[in-house]
Specification:
heterodimer; A: Mth169, Chain: A; 3-stranded antiparallel β-sheet; 2 helices; about 35% helix; B: alpha/beta; two-stranded antiparallel sheet
């Protein structure tokens, strides 16, 4: 069994209205050093797969198809074997 | 003509669309459940607004894998008329029939309002009953209507005259002030390169009868009918 963590983030240059709002809020809280905030998604997936390489391929496939939208988002997969 | 209105779990403008097509436009119309896969009986397809699959993951992201969507893609590739309204537009973007993606509104707020739209192209199956440069009033109701695409795609949309409706002021000003959601280039509606697939965030089905306060939406459906009658499917 594998456990994957998939980080889905907005591509560089794509405006993040949520991140902007949170940044303003942090400034209001006097965290004036905050330069930028970007918000993304954190997805956990547990899957059965014959080996790590297959699991990674499947996860990339799922990310391309459904978990991320390649027009606006990038993703990164972290994979670990679990019992 | 026979119109098919696709119903996903979470669609909520399907009944409005059916009412307009049946009782206002006087056309044969019926619902198509998203598990269906045959669209051969229809002259045009409507993807209505709503919150298909609760907007989980991204708006339209899960609906695009409904069985009916492969049929919609084939239907569109064969030249069939497809209009996606609001969530329908979001689904058309996710499935790749239209370029780009939707981001959260700039204000982060769900906006329910009536806006001015400028008709940028009148020579399409969806706008031939309107005039280029005409300003129409159509309601919007969305939280994620902030259209985004890369520069190259925007250039292509402009070059191919695929931008059909833009948000504007009462005098047709296409400025940030009159951009309700932060959409790139004030985009409210675009079509595909062939011109047979339209996606728009505003709701023409909510302004197709005088009793509802406006009839500008009627002209969009009337354009589709006009096109179908002249050109056929």
């Amino acid at each position: 069994m594998f456990k994957a963590i998939i980080y889905v983030t907005l591509k560089e240059g794509v405006l993040d209205p949520q991140g902007e709002a949170v940044k303003k809020s942090l400034h209001v809280l006097n965290y004036e050093g905050v330069d930028e905030v970007r918000i993304g998604k954190f997805i956990e997936v547990w899957l059965k797969s014959q080996d790590e390489e297959t699991a990674r391929r499947e996860l990339e496939d799922m990310s391309d198809k459904l978990l991320a939208n390649p027009v606006i988002e990038d993703y990164r997969v972290e994979l670990m074997e679990v019992v | 003509m026979k119109f098919g209105i696709i119903v996903f779990p979470g669609s909520n403008c399907d009944a409005d669309c059916l009412h307009v097509m049946k009782n206002v436009m006087k056309q044969e119309s019926e619902y198509i459940w998203h598990q269906e896969s045959d669209l051969s009986a229809y002259d045009a397809i409507i993807l209505p607004g709503g919150f298909s699959y609760g907007d989980y993951l991204r708006t339209g992201a899960i609906a695009r894998f409904s069985p009916i969507m492969s049929a919609v893609v084939d239907y569109a590739r064969q030249g069939g008329l497809v209009i996606g309204i609001c969530n329908g537009f979001q689904i058309l973007l996710e499935v790749g029939l239209l370029p780009g993606a939707m981001l959260r509104n700039r204000s982060l707020k769900f906006i329910c309002d009536t806006v001015n739209l400028k008709v940028r192209q009148a020579n399409t199956p969806f706008s031939n009953k309107l005039e280029e440069g005409q300003i129409i009033q159509v309601p919007i109701a969305h939280g994620e209507g902030n259209y985004y695409c890369d520069e190259k795609t925007l250039q292509e949309l402009n070059d191919n005259k695929q931008i059909i409706f833009t948000y504007c002021g009462p005098e047709g000003e296409e400025s940030l002030e009159y951009n309700p959601n932060g959409s790139l280039a004030n985009i409210a509606g675009i079509c595909n390169e062939k011109g047979n697939v339209l996606g728009m965030m505003p709701h023409p089905e909510r302004c197709s009868e005088a009793v509802l306060g406006g009839t500008d939406g009627y002209k969009i459906f009337a354009s589709m009918l006009n096109y179908l009658e002249e050109v056929g499917r």
